[in-house]
Amino acid sequence: MTSAIARRTLLAGAAVPVLAACGGGASDGVGADGKVTVELWHGQNDTARKAVEALVAEFNRTHPRVRVDSSGGGVVADAMLQKVTAALAAGSYPDIAYVFGSDLAGIARSPRVVDLTTAVREGPTPWTSFWSPVRDAVTVNGKVRAAPAVLDSLAVVYNKKLFRQAGVTFPKAGWTWDEFVDTARNLTDSGRGVFGTGWPGTGDEDTVWRLWPMIWDLGGDVVDDDGKRIGFADQGVRALETLARLTRDKSVYVDPKPGGEQMYQVFLGGRMAMVATGPWQLPDIITAEIDYDVVPLPTYSGRPVTISGPDTWTVFDNGSARSRAAVEFVRWMMQPAQDVRWGISAGSLPLSSATARRPEWRRHSERTTGLKVFTDVLGSARVRPVHAAYPQISQALGEAIISVLLGKASPSRALRRCADTADAALLIPR
Fold first, then answer.
1. To the nearest whole percent, how much of the chain has pLDDT over 90?
2. What is the mean predicted confidence (pLDDT) over 40-52?
3. What does UniProt give as the signal peptide span (predicted)?
4. Cα 89 from Cα 294, distance rounded (Å)
5. What is the CATH code of the structural domain delimited by 2-151+310-375?
6. What phi and psi values does residue 421 have, to the nearest 5 degrees?
7. What is the model's pTM?
8. What pLDDT score was predicted for residue 25?
9. DSSP H or E segment with residue 181
10. What CA–CA distance (Å, rounded) separates 128 from 143?
11. What is the pLDDT of residues 5-31, one digit of tens each?
C-alpha cells in the first residue's frame, strides 16, 4: 500500500525533478525561520471546506518545514477561473488553486503553471492506479499539468416512494433513454406538483456536461478528429430530441438558477422522482431521509456510458522553494491515506484503485446506498477533452440545450446554431 512508502521531504534535500522552469532562486519563499509558506485557494464551502482545512492542519503538523495557508483568497470554486486569470495577469497568484477540470486547458497555457509530469507519474501513488478519467483530466498535450483533486461520476438517483405510489417499476442497469422518458412521464403528477426528472436550466457547464454521455453513447465526440469542427452535429440533434420529448411531456423541471440548487430542493422535497447527479449529493439526500436508490445512466446503444468531471490542484510557479513545497502538499493529498478522508468527507469518489481498496472506503461504501454504483460506473466513464476551445463549445451547447428545454427551438435548429458558434471557436489559432 502507498501508506507504507516513506514520505519524501522535498525541502530536506530529497530531489524531485518536477519543475520545468521556476522563477527566482532556491531561497525564494523561505522565511527567516527556514519555513516555506504556500498559499492555497481551495474554493470549498461547508463540509468540504472543513475537510480540506482539517487535512491542511495535519499536513502542517507533520511537515514542519512547510506551512500551507488555506485562507482561500476570498474565492469560491465556481469563480476560481476568473479569480486565477486576473491574479496571473496582475502577477500575484497563489501557489495552488482548485481548478475545474474543464478549465485546466485554458489555465495551463500560462507559463506560470508548473509541469507535474514527473511528480505525479513517479510519485508515491502509482500513476496506473489512478482511474482512467483522472489521468485523462490532468493531461494536456501529453504532459501532466495538474494534480487530481476530486473525482465524481454521473448516475440517476431515484425516489423509491414516488415510484411505488405511481405503480412504476424501479429502473435497472441497461435501461434505455426511451424508457427514461416514458418513466418520467408516468411519474409526473402536475396536480401534486411532482416532476419525473429535472435539468439545470442556466446554460452553464452543469447544464452541458449531462448531455455528453448521451452524445458519446451515440458515437459522437466533443471535437471531430480533424480538430476543426464539433464532433456531434448529428448525435447532438438526437440527444436534444430526448430532451424535447421531456419538455413536450412537461415531465422535466428546468431549474432557472445556477448550481441546480432549486432542482435538488425539489428532489429533496419529495416532488421529483429522478435526478441525474453525482455522489456529492448523497449526503443531502440521506439527511432529507429520502428512500432512494441509484442506477447507471440510461443508454441508446446498450453499452454503459457515463461522464466523470475530475477537478484539479493546479500548481503555480512562485519560485523554486514555494513550488517544491506546493508539489509536496498536492502529492501528499493524492495518497490513499489522505484521499480516502477527503473523499468520504467531501462526497467524492476515490482517485485511485488503491484508495478504493482501503478498509475505510469499503466500510463507507457498504453503508452508503448507491455509492458503489457511482464507483463501478467509473469503468465506463469518459471526461471532457482538455481543449482550449472547450469553454466556447460548452457555452454554445448550453444555449442550444436551454432553447430546447424551454421550447424555443427545435433540436435541429438549436444544434445548427451551436455548430456555427463552436466551429468558429475551433478555427481560432491557440
1. 83
2. 90
3. 1-20
4. 44
5. 3.40.190.10
6. -70, -45
7. 0.87
8. 35
9. helix 177-187
10. 15
11. 222 222 233 333 333 333 333 347 788
Coil/strand/helix, residue 185: helix
Mean pLDDT over residues 168-192, rounded? 97
Asked whether the beta carbons of 375 and 365 are under 8 A apart, the reply is: yes
Percent of the chain with pLDDT over 70: 93
Grid cell in block for residue 253: 423541471
Q: Give dist(CA 146, CA 139) in Å, integer.
A: 8
> Exposed, middle or buried: residue 298 (CB in 10 Å: 0-12, 13-18, 19+)?
buried
Closest CA to 192 of 294, 269, 292, 276: 269
At 91, list the grid cell.
502577477
Closest C-alpha to 373, from 302, 309, 297, 299? 297
Indicate if the pLDDT at residue 299 is higher than 70.
yes
What is the three-class DSSP state of 210?
Answer: coil
Where do the CATH 3.40.190.10 domains begin and end in the chain? 2-151+310-375, 155-307+387-426
* pLDDT tens digits, one per residue of 268-277: 999 999 999 9
Residues 342 and 347: their CA atoms lie apart, in Å, by 8
Worst-scoring range by mean pLDDT, 37-41, 103-107, 178-182, 314-318?
Answer: 103-107
Compute how many other C-beta atoms are within 10 angstroms of the C-beta atom of residue 37: 15
The answer to whether 386 and 356 have CB atoms below 8 angstroms apart is no
| Sheet with 274-277, side-by-side order of all strands | 274-277, 155-159, 292-295
pLDDT by residue (tens digit) across 252-285? 999 998 877 899 999 999 999 999 999 999 999 9
Q: Residue 270 and residue 96: Cα distance in Å, rounded?
A: 40
Please state, in angstroms and rounded to a whole number, the distance separating the CA atoms of residues 374 and 365. 10
Which of these, 46, 39, 125, lies nearest to 83 by C-alpha position? 39
Residue pair 243/407 in contact (Cβ under 8 Å)? The answer is no
Query: Cell numbers 512547510 correspond to what residue?
Result: 66
What one-letter code names the amino acid at 301?
S
Single out the residue of 246, 242, 260 nearest to residue 299, CA to CA.
242
The three cell numbers locating residue 222: 466533443
CA dihedral 48, 149, 153, 226 (to 10 degrees): 140
- C-alpha triplet 62, 66, 69: angle, nearest 5°: 105
- Give, in words, the CATH class of 155-307+387-426: alpha beta
For residue 242, give the 3-state DSSP assignment.
Answer: helix
Question: Which residue in the block uniquely carries the three cell numbers 508515491?
Answer: 124
